[in-house]
Structure formats: C-alpha cells, structure tokens
Amino acid sequence: MGFLTEKEILELNPSELLPHPTPIPTQIVSSDEFTPPPQSEKQKEVENRLLDMADTLGKRQGLDRRKFFQTAAGMAAGFVALNETFGTIFDASRAEASTPAMAQERAHSLKDQFIMDMHTHFLRDDTRLVNFVRSREAVGKAGWNPTLVDKPQTLDDLKFNNYFKEMYLDSDTKIALISSSPSEIARDWFLTNDMMIEARDKVNKEAGARRMFAHAIFTPGWDRWLEDLEHALQKKPESIKGYTVGDNTNKDEAKHPWLMDDEKTTYKAYELCVKYGIKNVCVHKGLFPRATAERWPHLLKYAMVDDVGKAAKDWPQLNFVIYHGGYRWAAGGRAEDGWDEFEKTGRVSWVSDLAEIPEKYGVTNVYADVGQLFAQSVAAVPQLGAALMGIMGKGLGYERVVWGTDAVWTGSPQWQIEALRRLEIPEDMQKKHGFKPLGAADGPIKNMIFGGTNAKLYNYDITKRTDIGPNKDRFARLKDEYEKAGPARSNLRYGYVNGPVDWSAFA
Question: Where is pLDDT greater, at 128 or 253?
C-alpha cells in the first residue's frame, strides 16, 4: 500500500518510537507514501540544543525531559533552539523557556485565538493501510522496545479517539474540517464520503455546537463519479476536495488523473457545486519532488498548478483552495532543496507559480492552504517557511492564505500553531523580495490566516462561536477540565523516520 514497499518500510523506524518526544519535530516524518530524508546536521543541532535545555531548565523546574517538553516553557524552548541554530526567525527567548510562569501566561493569553483548521485527517476503523502496525510489530519482535513485545499493535493513534484528543484538547484549534484521500482500491480511502459526514454529525452532536466540517471527495473520470458526487452533495458537505493525480495512496493504480480546467469532465463537478450551493473547491497540489516524478513521470503535470488559473477565471462564483499551496518539495523532497531554489532564483516550485495566478489571470478566487507546506519547511529550514509565507502573501495576499495542518499525521497541530504565532519574515528578506511582515501572534494578518478567512469562505459567524464565553459548549468544558489536570500533549508524530533510533532509551 502506498509509495513504499514493505522492505523499504522495514528499513525505516516508526516515528512514534523516537526516544525524545520534542515539542517541535527535529526530523522529517513521512507516511507510507514517501521515504523521509535523513535528519540533517542542522536538525541534529536543534535536537541537541533542546535536550540540553530540557536537562538544565527542566531540572530547575523539577521536570524530566518528557514533562518539560509538554509545558509551555518546553514549547518556547523548541523555538529558541531553532533561533540559535538558524538565526532569529521566531519570537522566543531563553527567559520564556526558563520561566514557566512567563511561558504559561503567554500561552493563556492566546488560547482563545480563533483557529479554524480546514485540513485534517483520521483513518477509518476498518482501514487496511497497516504498514504503521507492521513496523511497530517488527520493533516488538526484535525486542528493541520492551513495551511492544507480545503486545498487539493497532492504528488507534491515527483513528478518531486520538484525533479528538490531539485536535480539540491538545491544541488551540476551535473548528476542524475532516478530509480524506481517494483510491482506485475502494478499501484504501482514508474515509468514505458517508463516513466523513457521519463523523461531522457525530462530533457536532456531542459538542452541542458546530465544531467539525466535512469534505466530499470528487473523482473526475472514475466510473459513476458524477452520480457519486451528487449523492455526496445531497448530504450537505461544506466543500469538495479532489486529487488531480487521481490516486495519491496507490500511485501505481492512478488510472484517472485529471486537470482542473478540463471543460468536458471536471467542469461538470463545478456545475454540481453551483447547483447544490457549494462554493469551495479544494484541490491537492504539489508534494511531488524529483524522486516521485521519476517514478511516476506521467502524473507530474497533474501535480503542478498550471491548470488552476483558467478554472478560477471560468468559475468566478467558486473559490479554489489549493492544498499544500502547490509546494513541491515535501513528501519525499528536502526543505534544503526548496531553500536552495529560493536563494538562487527568489522562487519556490510551485508556490511562486500559484502566487502569480491572480495577476496573470485577473482573478481573486484562488487561495493557498498551508498544510505540509508549513510543517515541512518551518521546522526544517525556518527561513524557507518564512519565504513561503512571504511569496504567498505578496502574490495572493495574506487574506487568501488559509490555515490547515494535515494533522494528525503531524501529531497535535499545536506546534504548528505556535510556529506561525512566533514566525516573522526577516527584515532583509522583506526588503529584498518585497514581502510584507506577518506581525504579532494575534495581529490582523495571523488572525486572518488562522481563522478569519476560513470563516468567510465557510460562512461561519465568529461572533457566535461557542468555545468561549458564559455558554461554552461541551468540548470547551471538557478542555477546561483537561487543562486543570496538567499538560498531557504527547508530542508524537505518526509515520516513519530515516535513520537510527536509540532503542536503549526504552530499556
């Protein structure tokens, strides 16, 4: 299943078993769809700095490493380590990392910020995408991790219960949209359209409020695809989503790639959207580095953003939200490749192409979602994360850059939330490239990105939110009780890492 063979997976290590659950990732984690790059020397330096702070600052606070990394001070330490390794990019200081009261006061002041994450996932209960499980079982059989010996492994970390904890309790996310990924092999859909609607309705009923939105997946050119889409639209999803490469999970089976500006086929989906009052069309783009392109060259043009402009111009009544911002270098590529490209050319594939569409086509209905684009740049090469935000802000306008994290693959999204809150584009980069600053953690630009624009796209009235105020919904009350018990964020990321793991740490 997916890009990697079982042999390739067994040469990797499960990311959940890394001995140091740092508050920010210190190496790239992959799903079973791509081989992660090895930990870079800079990432090793970040990790070592973090471990040193955990040992020194944590000890002063009476905390071991794991407990320190679960605190607001530990989160601040993550961004201090990035600054000390890469240069100052984030608003973070050693004073905050060493003073729990200061760190907690800052975290508390921002906890009610409105964050609307419109790009999240969990797996269905009957999934057969079991490579995660097989890898964990192999670790147990080898005796590397005593806690896994003779213990049946499951995919529970990637299913709903853990999703709920990491999205609604371990992060400041207020509203999430549940998405999926289609496959030519029916069993390999992350969730079916019906399952997404059922999850949304169940969550909102339990919350007593509107806390989850849902996609309907559309698959142009597949058998009965229009009938399936119309069936899904009748259940009132908030938006639709498609993968132009066809089958992203099993690319060898991708028999039906499609283009956004295909008037004979794809435009029929847009017609149905108009008929059913759906305004937002979300499309997976990018995540197609050289190794992926070499393996599936026939899918390359479908992963690019060349088909976005005409579709947007022909359908001004729709909004086109391009997932991952079209960023090419994730999912098997290296952030260093993106940074090298930017340093040499001032561009990043294919984010710059996407950002130029409004001027080139005279449109205002193209948006960039930052899922994976942000996660796989900002903690690997922070300057690249800053450059990507600047490119999108300059071309699309920050009002058309929207928040999505692709969690739970990347664990609780709180570290990404903190990264954007603290991130600023360096002044020299602003001056050289004409980028506008991002501003304060709760300033107008970051508030737009986190939730303001998504609220407008999805017609959500922020003034009627139910997570704050005297009449809090059930989820808000649960979180209040959860926080009183003390931090319990796992800091886990789910997937595979490239390189050795110090199994003795588990002995």
Answer: 253
Q: What is the largest CA-CA distance in the chain?
A: 66
Phi, psi of 179 (to 5 degrees): -120, -175
Distance CA 374, CA 384 (A): 9
Q: Is the pLDDT of residue 108 over 50?
A: yes
When comparing pLDDT for 161 and 129, which is higher? Answer: 161
Q: What angle do CA 28, 32, 37 make, to 5 degrees?
A: 30
Which one-letter DSSP state was computed for residue 36? Answer: P
Exposed e or buried b per residue across 83-120, where buried means at least 16 C-beta atoms within 10 angstroms of its C-beta? bebbeebbbbeeebbbbbebbeebbeeeeebbbbbbbb
Q: Are 270 and 281 in contact (CB under 8 A)?
A: yes
Burial 22-53 (b: 16+ CB within 10 A, else e): bbbbbbbbbbbbbbbbebbebbebbbebbbeb
The distance of Cα 257 from the centroid of its chain, to the nearest Å, equals: 23
Cα 425 to chain centroid, rounded: 20
Cβ-based neighbour number of residue 294 at 10 Å:
9
Question: What is the average pLDDT score of the chain?
Answer: 88
DSSP state of 297: G
pTM: 0.89
Contacts of 415 (CB under 8 A, 6+ apart): 23, 24, 25, 75, 78, 379, 491
Q: Count other Cβ atoms within 10 Å, centred on residue 239.
A: 21
How many percent of the chain have pLDDT more than 70? 84
CA distance 376 to 276: 36
In this structure, what are the phi and psi dihedrals at residue 89, rounded to the nearest 5 degrees? -125, -30
DSSP H helices, 61-192, are 65-69, 72-86, 94-98, 100-110, 131-142, 160-164
pLDDT reported for residue 188? 82
pLDDT computed for residue 133 by the predictor: 44
Rounded alpha-carbon distances, angstroms, from residue 21 to 97, 314, 370, 489, 502:
17, 48, 24, 10, 13
For residue 52, is pLDDT > 70? yes
In terms of DSSP H, where are the helices of 173-304?
Answer: 193-207, 225-233, 266-276, 290-295, 300-303
Mark out the alpha helices in 396-452 (DSSP H runs). 414-422, 427-433, 444-447
What are the structure tokens assigned to 475, written together? 């989820």
Which is more confidently placed, 236 or 504?
236
pLDDT tens for 372-413 read 999 999 999 999 999 999 999 999 999 999 999 998 777 789
* CB 148 within 8 Å of CB 485: no
pLDDT of residue 18: 66
Written as one letter, the residue type at 411 is G
**Is it true that the peptide bond before 133 is cis, omega within 30 degrees of 0?**
no
| Local structure of residue 169 (DSSP, 8 states) | I
Cβ-Cβ contacts under 8 Å for 154 (sequence gap 6 or more): 133
pLDDT band per the 50, 70, 90 thresholds, residue 304? very high
